[in-house]
Task: structure prediction
Amino acid sequence: MSNTDNGDRTPEGRYYPWWLDNLADDATLEGGAMNGTARGAEAVRAIVVKARELYEFQDFSYTDDFGDNGFLEIYDASVEGEPMKVVVTVTRNDAGQAQDLAVLHRPRNSLLLFSRLMREKLAGTPLAEHFLADEA
Result:
């Protein structure tokens, strides 16, 4: 089953998730590439925007609702030539806003690279602490 009609397209034709501009004020973001939980719409949006900048491409195989309050994205991506598969779950609150997001990246080597690159992208901000430091 494949549905990729749930989201807008940028002028360049890239998928743009509906939920990115519809985050609850107290939204949360967790992921295997992260330490702890990012809290608040501003923090979640900043992390997602930086993550999208790292992807060389996103090839969506599925974007659609699931259950009563859920939304699911499944896509292939690449970061610095390393392939990855990504699953994003979004849970809506009663107002229909994106409340809780969880992101799974795999395989592990790509996840670790992604986490280190996110720390670099977010350097100088408190959000950098959610990601791995360079190996020393």
Remarks:
- The radius of gyration is 14 Å.
- DSSP finds two helices and eight strands in the chain.
